[in-house]
């Protein structure tokens, strides 16, 4: 019988933590396919995966490939997946055992095409291990719980509660046929991973469990603020791909279209915030040039982005108010938001 869930673990020099990721999936037994994608590691990542294959030959698989970056590893995992549903688990993160078993129980019912969702949404938890803190992200105020629903039943999205890679389990066939393209050697492509299949999603299911444990704290982690500031070219690249490659205007369902606008807006907000955070004239000019470019190439999206100042964000004032006043205020608001919401 077809496995219920394929989980790709993109891994690069992950010998110190990939075992925890694999171990967290083993309670799923024969229902789970674990695909470790060694993305050109130079350490013992593959050796560790091979040891698990010896113990669990029907559960664990290994793909060894030349280094192509996180997105390329995700695509390799998706291409190889045989499970009914597919999700990604980064090699330094893990899944909660009880939540995984509940997810598998729901997916078992979805073997029936009449009961199958295109996307199963679960909660994720920021695990700030070095600080001894956890911060769960849930969707109880936005989504119906424990049943199939469509976009017409989606409520207002709370600040910070948008759907990330960590909360998304896609039907494998839908994800594979979504036209998804993740560029090689590029960070932050998880935004594209979420959006490409999301454009095809019709039926959803929200399982209110804290499944994904998102480790925060490594100095070299891609979401560390200092690292992100040093990789603004990567952030801009992904942001542009989201704006120009995703044909959001073609989506007929208004709620679905607006969610994708909203998600892209969050990424654009991060781009603007980080460029201002760098606090140089050059980066301020890069930010304004980027917004000029969006205004010229995607005027419909630009109008959405700059409308309703203070209701969603302050990108509108950045474009309309004097720089000497607006930029310092924006930087101050960013610092306050970082403390309130606890993002890196």
Q: In CATH terms, what is the fold-level topology of the largest domain?
A: Spore Coat Polysaccharide Biosynthesis Protein SpsA, Chain A
List the uncertain runs.
Answer: none
Helix content: 40-55%
Q: Name the overall outline.
A: globular
Give the CATH H-level superfamily of the largest domain: Spore Coat Polysaccharide Biosynthesis Protein SpsA, Chain A
Label the structural class: alpha/beta
The CATH top-level class label of the largest domain: Alpha Beta
Radius of gyration: 20 Å
By CATH, the architecture of the largest domain is named Alpha-Beta Complex
Strand percentage lies at: 15-25%
- Summarize the biggest pleated sheet: 10 strands, mixed
Average of the residue pLDDT scores? 91
Number of strands: 10
Supply the number of helical segments.
Answer: 13
Q: How would you spell out the order of helices and strands?
A: EHEHEHEEHEEEEHHEHHHHHHH
How many domains comprise the coordinates? 2
> How far apart lie the N and C ends?
42 Å
Please outline the helices and strands.
Layout lengths: L4 E7 L6 H8 L6 E8 L5 H11 L4 E6 L4 H11 L4 E4 L5 E2 L1 H13 L9 E10 L4 E5 L10 E2 L18 E4 H5 L13 H9 L5 E13 L8 H6 L1 H14 L8 H24 L3 H17 L1 H8 L8 H6 L2 H19 L3
Parallel strand pairs: 1-2, 1-4, 2-3, 6-10
Antiparallel strand pairs: 4-9, 5-10, 6-7, 6-9, 8-10
Helix pairs in contact: 8-9, 9-10, 10-11
